[in-house]
Write a structure and sequence with these properties.
- The chain is α/β, with parallel strands linked by helices.
- The chain contains 16 helices and 24 strands.
- The strands form six sheets. It has a nine-stranded mixed β-sheet with strand order 2-1-10-9-11-12-13-14-15. Strands 4-3-5-6 form a four-stranded parallel β-sheet, sandwiched between helices. A four-stranded antiparallel β-sheet has the order 16-17-18-19.
- Strand 5, helix 5 and strand 6 form a beta-alpha-beta unit.
- Helix 2 crosses helix 6, helix 4 runs parallel beside helix 5 and helix 7 packs across helix 8.
- The radius of gyration is 23 Å and the shape is globular.
- The mean pLDDT is about 95.
- Bound molecules: adenosine monophosphate.
- The site of adenosine monophosphate (AMP) has 18 residues, from strand 13, strand 18 and strand 19.
Length: about 500
């Protein structure tokens, strides 16, 4: 496709005075100013010893400088490796030992704890605080700006993003320059982004959604963004009259629905609301449409593949589905065990192939090989189906599938029934060990304020709606479901919490 991603996204615009972003701390930043900052940061990385292909690992709060560091690393020929700001020193040690970066950037407050870890892994540590200050910024101010973009081929690696790793070791997904560029271009086209667009950017920038989907799309479209350090419903409401688009995780939308100011008028300037990274409840979609007149556009992707499918820009955006394959992306559903292809409406493993699909897991060739079919399709680990109209539906992660008494139960099917009960806000259905059935089903349920459901009334209401083996053996009421920063329900935590529920000792 092309060479260095930097040239395709920012290099072609680096003399333009048009606005790239506004930010509370950095103020108004033009394309030219941002590119100049990238050039200096890239110069600092080179002076710190960065060689092409070296990893630059970064655990820093969201800031314009942190965003510029991503593009500076790519421009200098390095591999950008962002790390969740919530990771503890022990977790950071695993990532640095595994990735062996030559440079590590962290918050100054963590320098004392993390510098020795980074040194042991062979990395030099620089600092960057939320206001964009630190030894990295000092080095950039003193550095000779990079004169030329490092020459890279499209298949060279531009970034490594570690998967969240809820089971087993977290794996480094290697994304090439072409993987990222092809996806950005495809999303610009599918979502009709132009240089008139203003995106509200309130997502974290250590994850594919905020780092690649949001940022790369804006750059590829020559658009601009209102850059916000974190999700704050009031700030989003304030930004909407100046903005045209929002990309969010489902929790953005459920929280915004609680805002009294959300209305047709307050969203009148907006043309598009995108949701992804976790399932959007059909109820949220409907409620949003009633309140604002906008149908949220839901899309589906993952760290390893960038974005795979999207509901249509023109045409029906169907609640509870993730739409059609993006241009150039092939999606199919197959038997998880044998790989035999399934037909319409049959639930199985979702597999994808296309220019968006990653180059493999960092230093794990066997794991990589086992996740691909012979014909190049990536086995996503998500279970789903394609309906008669071609819309893709996700029913959950393969590892969340419950097998009880030898029967397969897709948690989503049970969750949808429970969520539809009056008084229920949301639910999460999962399995834990059961001495007789292998796994026993538990439903964690969050009620609406004032609702008076009991365990028995929930189970009874499922009578006649779901086969007996699909009905939960236990219903646990919770104030909220455990979610990670991307809004995903952490079923692994629920399984841990309720692990002994059906063991004989617990029955006493
Ligand atoms: P991550 O790699 O952190 O982006 O997580 C990717 C996973 O998030 C996918 O494999 C899906 O399980 C889930 N996911 C992303 N988007 C959606 C969506 N729109 N609906 C349901 N699940 C989603």
């Amino acid at each position: 496709m092309a060479g260095n991603l930097y040239d395709a996204l920012l290099g072609r615009l680096d003399r333009e005075d048009r606005l790239l972003l506004t930010d509370e701390t950095a103020g108004s930043v033009s394309y030219r100013a941002f590119a100049d900052q990238c050039a200096r940061l890239a110069g600092a990385l080179l002076e710190a010893g960065l060689q092409p292909g070296d990893r630059v690992a970064v655990q820093a709060e969201k800031s314009v400088t942190a965003l510029a560091l991503y593009l500076a690393t790519v421009r200098a020929g390095g591999i950008y490796l962002p790390l969740n700001i919530a990771y503890t020193p022990a977790e950071i040690e695993y990532f640095l030992t595994d990735a062996e970066p030559s440079i590590f950037v962290c918050d100054p407050s963590k320098f004392a704890a993390l510098e020795p870890i980074a040194r042991a892994a062979g990395a030099k540590t620089l600092t960057l605080d939320p206001a964009g200050k630190g030894t990295l910024t000092d080095a950039a101010a003193a550095a000779e700006p990079i004169a030329q973009t490092s020459s890279r081929s499209g298949s060279d690696i531009a970034a490594i993003l570690y998967t969240s790793g809820t089971t087993g070791r977290s794996k480094g997904a290697m994304l090439s320059h072409d993987n990222l560029l092809s996806n950005a271009l495809s999303l610009v086209e599918s979502w009709r982004f132009t240089d008139k667009d203003v995106l509200i950017h309130a997502l974290p920038i250590f994850h594919t959604h905020g780092l690649f989907v949001a940022t790369n799309v804006v750059l590829a479209a020559r658009a601009s963004m209102i850059f916000q350090p974190k999700f704050d419903p009031n700030k989003i409401m304030e930004a909407m009259p100046q903005a045209t688009t929002l990309m969010g995780v489902p929790t953005f939308y459920t929280r915004l629905l609680q805002h009294p100011g959300l209305s047709r008028e307050s969203t009148a300037h907006m043309r598009l609301f995108v949701s992804g990274s976790a399932p959007l409840l059909a109820e949220t979609h409907i409620e949003w449409q009633e309140r604002t007149g906008h149908a949220i556009l839901e899309r589906y992707g993952m760290t390893e593949t960038n974005m795979n499918t999207s509901n249509p820009y023109d045409g029906r955006r169907v609640a509870g589905t993730v739409g059609f394959p993006l241009p150039g992306v092939e999606v199919r559903v197959a038997d998880p065990e044998t790989g035999a292809l399934f037909g319409t409406e049959e639930i199985g493993m979702i597999e994808v192939r296309g220019p968006n699909v990653f180059q493999g897991y960092w230093r794990m060739p066997e794991k990589t090989a086992s996740e691909f079919r012979k014909d190049g399709f990536f086995i996503t680990g998500d279970l789903g189906k394609i309906d008669a109209d071609g819309y893709v539906h996700i029913v959950g992660r393969g590892k969340d599938l419950i097998i009880t008494g030898g029967y397969n139960v897709y948690p989503k099917e049970v969750e949808m029934e429970i969520d539809a009960m009056p008084g229920v806000n949301e639910s999460a259905v999962f399995g834990v060990r059961h001495p007789d059935f292998g796994e026993g089903i538990i439903a964690a349920v969050v009620l609406k304020p004032g609702a008076e459901l009991t365990e028995q009334s929930v189970i009874k209401a499922l009578d006649g709606r779901l086969a007996g083996y699909k009905r939960p053996k236990k219903v646990a009421f919770m104030a909220e479901l455990p979610r990670n920063t991307m809004g995903k329900v952490q079923k692994n935590l629920l399984r841990d919490q309720f692990a002994g529920t059906f063991e004989p000792a617990a029955a006493k």
